[in-house]
Known about the structure:
The chain has two domains: 46-140 and 243-279, 3-Layer(aba) Sandwich (D-Maltodextrin-Binding Protein, domain 2), CATH 3.40.190.10; 142-237, 3-Layer(aba) Sandwich (D-Maltodextrin-Binding Protein, domain 2), CATH 3.40.190. The model is unreliable at 1-53 (pLDDT under 50). The longest helix has 18 residues, at 27-44. By secondary structure, it is α/β, with parallel strands linked by helices. The two termini are 26 Å apart. The radius of gyration is 19 Å and the shape is elongated. Helices cover 36% and strands 19% of the residues.
Amino acid sequence: MSLNHSWLKNIPVLTRQLVGLLIGPFSTLLAVLFLGPILGSFLTSVSAQEVPPKKDIRKRQTIRIVATDYPPHVIATEKGGMDLDILRGVLDEMGFISTVRFVPAKRALSMVNQDDADVAVPVFFEADREGYYTSNAIIDYKPTVFTLSQNKDKIYDLSSLSNHRIVTFIGAGGYFGTIFTNATAKAISYNEINNVGAMPELLLMERYSAAVLDANIFYYFYRKENKNRDLSVFDDHDVFPKVEAAVGFNDKSLRDSFNQQLAKYRADGKDRLVIEKYVGATR
């Protein structure tokens, strides 16, 4: 049976359902992903008189970045992470110096709109509006089902999860929608946990037979101490649509210039080198 993605049309409804679930270390990612459209509507309502006049960003030597912490995409303790490193790498090639502050997702978007910051990372696509402009994708988020390769599981769509003992992140039911919740309701067992970093080891110990998590997050925690750790022990099943993460700017000309340099950066494979820095080489 083919996966029906019609649940994506219900994101505004799912967003409201998700608010009550936003707890635990994975909540930051969910807040960024789902609260963006809500914040967009809120920020659009700010009157032109309340938004400070924009400076010419090209004359400013330093670009002010605000970032939301959730490893490995943004790692506040290391002042790095995949998304942040890619952003800063492109800005560096454009001749800019950058500073970074780590703030919650809602505050990051507000700071960009109010000209208290120039750039927010990560964000997800929104149509351009006065004071806020989304870049092209800098990285893909890839929700994935992981199983042990020794079990030779075949997972073609979400309905296949009904045969498994599943572990996933807090709020996954609201994130993936009714097709996911209907499938997992029939599962042998289903558990949402705060400590997503434990998922690879829980799978290896066969406490669960399937783990559902963003691929780069899964690989990061599995290989945190050894970037060459063997990935062949897992099978990864791509039954979810990818989500493109981007950067939010308060200046359209800077966004447009960034997009041009980003294309060169990715064509040279520099984004892949950044990702491998955190998760090692993947399949």
